[in-house]
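Hi,

I'm pasting everything inline rather than attaching a file, because the server keeps stripping attachments. The sequence lines come first, and each chain or strand is labelled.
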Amino acid sequence: MFTRLCLGVILAWLAVSPAHAENHFVRNQNEYAHALAQIEAGDVIILANGVWRDFEMVITGEGRADAPITIISEEPGKVFLTGQSSLRIGGNYIFVTGLIFRDGYSPRGEVISFRRNKQDLARNSRVTEVVIDGFSKPDRYESDYWVGLYGQSNRFDHNLLVGKTNKGVTLAVRLDSEESRENNHRIDHNYFGPRPVLGSNGGETLRVGTSRYSMFNSNTLVENNIFDRCDGEVEIISSKAGGNIYRGNVFLRSRGTLTLRHGDGNLVERNVFLGEGKDYTGGIRVINQHQTVRHNYMEGLRGTGFSSALTVMNGVPNSPVNRYVQVLNAHIANNTVIDSRRITLGAGADEERSAPPIESVFANNLLGGLESGTFIEVDADISGIAFSGNRITTGNVHSALSDMPRAPVAMERAENGLLYPADEALSALGAPRDLQPVALDQVGVNWYAKPSNDTPFATSGNVTAVAAQENALVAAIANAETGDVLELAHGEHVIDRTIQLGKAITIKGATQEDGQGAVLMFSRPSLFELREGGNLQLINLVIDGALAPDSVGNAVIRTTTYPIKSNFQIEMDSVQVRGLVVNKSFNVLTLGKSTLADRVLIRNSSFSDITGAVLSASAETEDFGQYNVEYLDIIDSAFNNVGGPVADVYRGGRDESTFGPFVTFTGNALSNVGLATTNGSGASLNLHGVQTTKVARNAFFKGAPLRIVHTVGTPVTSVEGNAFTQTAKPVLEELNYEGEPRVLMAGNVLDGEPVE
Ligand code: CA
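And the predicted assembly:
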């Protein structure tokens, strides 16, 4: 395994370097600039431990293979570039290691650029053991790259990149000048850590090339990296050039796929995809010519459509470079797909994408799907694919593939953690036995922790009792640390200011007896305002709006008016909210522009006498495909006399780069909801552009109708087992799709009669 090329090693190495090699120990930016002015091949600049704020670091010079120019931290993990900082590398044989970018963001288009400017591109240079942690621009829709690779024969390895929250690829290989093509770059042993759902296009973790230069070869090697929870958008890796190799990478719980989007002649081999049953986890998507996909392993993937474990696309005849080139001569062999939901052949077939895959081979694959639904889907003519030696072990298959051999296969987990047929006679099937998935301790750096848990709540182990006294909760939150639980005593808790929340806090009422509980009253327009780092869980509480003033935009919980970088979660369980009536538009929850909730969960709760919406998630009105909530779950709750909709969710536009929003609305009772004249949607539940919707077993009584509007993509919507009483029937609309609304309606009753 790799160990850090530490200062001692460097200095020892210098002993055999040219006689003039020098060490420059620098303590500030002036000293750095002075050292840089005299730098020569073989020299080393050592950055002193500490915080280097607002440091737009530049390095260039003519190093040599036997005498590189080196920038190194005094000690690993102790040199921090913060504030408005960046690094630009030009020249030849430059070596950079040991830096941490944190607590700030790049003022430029990149955090680390392998070019100083358009004339001075890096060659034969290496960045290793560098950390970029949360170094994101404050507005999620302001774009940058964290790393831009230009030039020739550069290496980016053993780095740790986590928590990019703004738009733009995490690492981009650029081919925009001739000097950057056929580059032989190497990207290896990096830890690409959690990249949260962006809620827009531009959330790729790695992109090689662009459609404009996709006719050129990049010849980049992407090897032995780990992609952990890289959920930014539908493409984890977007390959947009030719001649690349993607080998030995591991994808853990990552939504989306490795997509061969543009460019020909790429090799994808020996990669391991482990979805662990998480929504939208996918594998490899094939487009273009002469692509080889072999010896890969996929397990526990749940993606469908373009995010299937294996997707072979239909193309556009004579496709322009930015559309879909027909698949020709794809070689897809010896892959194992197990416990996965979907493989799609001829995906995306429509009037425009009418050219099916041709002259292609699909051989010796071992294929095991879920028992429910169709495991292997065929959406086009597949006579141009030669099938041989494949075996289906489980799952239903489209009738076009009814000849494919099928029989159960006993599987055993081998020492490498992967499943193989127990019967040695089947060893020619599926992925090879000698796969060795790269391990977490082999990627990134060993002096900076990789992020672990996903739930922000109740992680600290601290539980603090809060007395029923004015502002006691304010003080308790000020003193709390993230992950704390605050337990409220019975009685009234009056709060006279808006609580600015920048931590993950659980507020829990002591168990209610005889209607006696912890009651929160507040005398400002909002009780909570979420800001960066804020997550809120409310359990077993009463929230009463009686003391709130008449103010524009009243909401019990709202987000700050500034953008929030990090996605957040809000949960309400066994919460009673009442009396938000001081004016005509008092919401329970308002999510503002440039904010995205990973999850809003409302369960076993009740809401009564509210003039506005329970959840307003409709601030992204520009129709760029952006939105405010990824998962919305409203379950087993009651809504009485609510003027606005229970939820107003809006995702407009035609972009297809996101999976969400995802709405579950089940087991609720609504009475007199959505009828206020101020409710512009005219609905009791307004879902616009939601991708996956389940509305089941609800009772809608004397209120406005349910409204579902589909925009792009292939929305999955079901409305089942609901009772609509003295309520207009659901309003279902398609904005782009020609035909009847794609909604599964079943078992619903309108005033006692079945409704379709
Ligand atoms: Ca994309």
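The chain has three helices and 71 strands.

If the labels don't parse on your end, tell me and I'll reformat.
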